[in-house]
Amino acid sequence: MKRLMLFAVALGILFSCNPQEKKYSSLLRGTASSSEDDHNDGVLPRDPSGLPVSISLSESQATLELAEDKPYTVTIKADSSYSGGSIDLSVDRSSIDGAGIKAGKDVGFEFSPSKISLSAGETKTAVLKIKTTSMAPSFSGKNIKIVAMESGDDAGSSQNLNLEVLPRITIRLMNDAVPALYDKDEKLCFREHTAGLEVEFMNNSANSTGNKGLIPHATSGLEHGPTNVFLQPGESYVHTRKVMPDIGQRVNTWYNHHLGNDNNGKRMFFNLQPGEESDSDNCGTGN
């Protein structure tokens, strides 16, 4: 028995002094030190919850009118630790989708380009175009996220952009050709806006001067522009009467008053319900 006990003690000492066994045991327990790791390629695994790429925007606030589009510059910069790759740009619009604001129908987003290649320490830019339709609801205080994701991976970086859509539209006369050219569709549809819809006409034409200036003609829902005041290039007229929900649905005919041949089907449809803009008698596209 005494010999058996001595043999067991000796066997324990042998294994405790075996560096190879110590290494394997440590690895199995998941506590191997870096000095014991026989495979080190110098690249640390990336944190899957983040991407060493930062995003900055030309503006922190995006304010648009109805039927308007605006560009915003997005700057993407890779950290010096970034190993390089292809970055996809997108918009997380869950905050506005949850409020019933529909993609394409109300507010749309488009990147140019939507995919960029970055290497360590490199900086590149893209343009985000935000577009509203005339049927978009008015709102404020909605935060959307500009997201940069590495292609084929779930690691990403994001930046907030505060979004506001005003219950307002500006219609610009671009020239006084026959018929005159404007920067908006001939048929415009609008939903109800609690604060009222504000309409502005602007002379944006260099050749519409003197008695060829702009006089906003209006019928139902808006007051007519002064017939003795010709808006000169750069001048505008804001209708003092807002289109309120309580007037019900109205159809307004609009054109340049002193050009009778400018009345070629230009209409505004006020206080429609979402979906009614698709009626063939109204706007068709709702843009």
Q: Mind explaining what this structure looks like?
A:
The chain is mostly beta strands. It folds into 2 domains: 53-165, Immunoglobulin-like, CATH 2.60.40.2310; 168-278, Immunoglobulin-like (Sandwich), CATH 2.60.40. Helices cover 10% and strands 37% of the residues. A 5-stranded mixed sheet has the order 2-9-8-4-6. It has a 4-stranded antiparallel sheet with strand order 1-3-7-5, with no helix packed on it. A hairpin with a 5-residue loop joins β10 and β11 (181-182). The longest helix has 15 residues, at 2-16. It is elongated, with a radius of gyration of 32 Å.
Helix-strand layout with pairing:
Elements: H1 2-16, H2 19-29, E1 53-57, E2 61-64, E3 69-78, E4 85-92, H3 94-97, E5 107-112, E6 115-118, E7 123-132, E8 139-150, E9 156-165, E10 168-175, E11 181-182, E12 187-191, E13 198-203, E14 216-217, E15 236-238, E16 250-253, E17 255-256, E18 267-272
Parallel strand pairs: 2-9, 10-13, 12-18
Antiparallel strand pairs: 1-3, 3-7, 4-6, 4-8, 5-7, 8-9, 10-11, 13-15, 14-17, 16-18
Notable characteristics:
Immunoglobulin-like; 10% helix; 3 helices; five-stranded mixed beta sheet; 287 residues; four-stranded antiparallel beta sheet; mainly beta; 18 strands; 2 domains
| CATH class (first level) name of the largest domain | Mainly Beta
Helices, by number, come to 3
Spatial order of the strands in the main sheet? Answer: 2-9-8-4-6
Quickly give the structural class.
mainly beta
Number of domains: 2
* Cα shape: elongated
Order of helices and strands: HHEEEEHEEEEEEEEEEEEEE
Terminal CA distance: 97 Å
Beta-strand fraction estimate: 35-45%
Main beta sheet: strand number and arrangement?
Answer: 5 strands, mixed
Q: If you average the pLDDT, what whole number results?
A: 80
Uncertain regions spanning at least 5 consecutive residues: 4-11, 13-49
Helix content estimate: 10-25%
CATH topology of the largest domain: Immunoglobulin-like
Strand element count: 18
**Based on the structure given, which CATH architecture of the largest domain is correct?**
Sandwich
Rg, Cα atoms, Å:
32 Å
